[in-house]
Each structure stands twice: as structure tokens, then as C-alpha cells.
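Standup notes
- DV: blocked on the single-chain target, sequence here:
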Amino acid sequence: MDIAALSIIKKQVQLKQDVGIAVLRKAMGTAEQGGGLVNQMLDKAAEGKAAVLSGLSYLGNNIDRLV
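- DV (later): unblocked, structure below
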């Protein structure tokens, strides 16, 4: 193999690695955004549950027991 062919192969391998890294970074960014949205939804759900339970303050105050 000559020097020119080795140089071309090296550049192709480097390009494939660079593209792979760029795609991985994009996927990681998308996953991070999705995770942030899930956290926001869970926070909103917890707020809604707390609001419902605060309106039902009489629940859990009495215990029924059978003797």
C-alpha cells in the first residue's frame, strides 16, 4: 500500500469517528431534554396530589379498630 492510500483510509476512519461522536452527543442532548420534561411532569403531579390531599384534611385523622 502506498502513502496516499493509507492517508485516505486514516481520514475516512477519523471522519467515521467524528460523525459517531456527533450523533452520540445529539442523542445525549435529546435524552437530557426528555429527562428534564419527565422531571417537570413528576413535579406537577406531586403538586396536584398535594393540592387534592390538602382539600381532604379529614382523611387519616381517625383509626377504626375492632376489639
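- Follow-up: The CA atoms of residues 15 and 30 lie 23 Å apart.
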